[in-house]
Amino acid sequence: MYPSLKRDSRFSELTNEHIQFFKSTLGDDAAVIDGVSKDATDDLEPFNRDWMKKYRGHTKLVLKPKSTEEVSKVLKYCNENKLAVVPQGGNSGLVGGSVPVFDEIVISLSRMNKIRNFDDISGILVVDGGVIMEIADNFLAEHNHLYPLDLGAKGSAQIGGNVATNAGGLRLLRYGSLHGNVLGIEAVLPDGTIFDDLSTLRKNNTGYDLKQLFIGGEGTIGIITGVSIHCAQRSKAINVAYFGLPSFEHVQRAYKEAKIQLGEILSAFELMDARSQAFVHEVTGNKRPLEGDHPFYCLIETSGSNTEHDSEKLEKFLEHVMGEEIVSDGVLAQDETQVRQLWGWREGITEAIGHFGGTYKYDLSIPIKELYSLVEETRDRLNSKGLVGDDDSYPAIAVVGYGHMGDGNLHLNVPVRKYTQEVEDAIEPWVYEWIQKRKGSISAEHGLGIAKKKYIGYQRSDTMLKLMRQTKDLYDPNGIMNPYKYI
């Protein structure tokens, strides 16, 4: 994956002396996976590769601290001994950001999984960085609140990782980004200093808002060990509609009508193309929600306080868009089971398209009017090069587009039978040049990692890159934090 990348000679090689320090500091055999003094290949394997099996590292040591103080001691020692580290949460990203490249030490926050506090008056939740987001959301449900982020990987993704990558997800249309919802952060800097800004205040206008450096910082200036986050009241009424449309122009019209007619209760507007839904049907075997084939599908969710009122508004919306021939066909979920089933057609895409091999994934922000044009042009480009086909002689299977229509976030996916340089060269850097011309973003979610590091110039000016490097050098002068990535 990185033929021109060389291990940084500044970093030390792990020794048995280092291993003994970590074992004595963490004081628990379960906290250290040692592949230096013995063979631990099988135990290390899940930490050395991403879930897509696209990125692979060669770590020989995984550390699992259980407190902020332990993280501090570990990082202080690593910094003094020039040992490179990679913070790792649920390892569910798309750009290789949480996977080692060479032999960096993996610091897993999986044992830092405590919910520290929740105030049901203000709706502010304080958690360890290693708390899994689905567990947090289930806890909040008991208190009639919800976690303001929803992802397909919610069963494994950790809140510290959410924040470190500034994850967006399915609820951003309604609840906004983590830059707004995160109120405070506790983190450990490379030299072991504990950055304690775990504020629970909605308003705090005293000096630089330094916590923002960690939101989307991908573990390059410190490890997030604690988060305080504002959580909204859980809606009593959740309604979902799923419908088919004849063109992307009709999708845009439907979105505009949804904003007008559904207004404050609109919580999600998801776009799926025909090929994405065909993959879900093929892999799951589930009966399709609608009869016939449609070029595009959308899923709308509303969240409010009055089921009858919201259902009536959604029914009237669907009647209107079908009457105006904006929507070809549609269905409303009648109960909670159907709500989950309809969401399955959106959330099941990632797993379905990965069923046949690997996937080239591009998570991009594009002006809404041109959102699907990239999928069409990518499909034409790969077809013209003879790279896409139905039998095993073609490396690529299809070109798929889906995503969050409400915030202009497209997931461009190219499922392949195997990863090949030929397919990658056809897509990159062409796709980033396409984005640059339209003033979009080469990373809407998930960050830069190692996959997009060399393409950051398509997004950021020389001045911005200089300031980012100065920030990195200030907090991490030895460069031990998540090296070879980001900038």
Automatic annotation (TrEMBL):
Its EC number is 1.1.2.4. It catalyses: (R)-lactate + 2 Fe(III)-[cytochrome c] = 2 Fe(II)-[cytochrome c] + pyruvate + 2 H(+). Keywords: FAD, Flavoprotein, Oxidoreductase. Its cofactor is FAD. Gene3D superfamilies: 3.30.465.10, 3.30.70.2190, 3.30.70.2740, Uridine Diphospho-n-acetylenolpyruvylglucosamine Reductase, domain 2 (3.30.43.10), Vanillyl-alcohol Oxidase, Chain A, domain 4 (1.10.45.10). It is an enzyme of class 1 (oxidoreductase). One of its GO terms (cellular component) is mitochondrion. GO terms for molecular function: D-lactate dehydrogenase (cytochrome) activity; FAD binding. Residues 55-234 form the FAD-binding PCMH-type domain. Belongs to the FAD-binding oxidoreductase/transferase type 4 family. This is D-lactate dehydrogenase (cytochrome). The lineage of its organism: Eukaryota, Fungi, Dikarya, Ascomycota, Pezizomycotina.
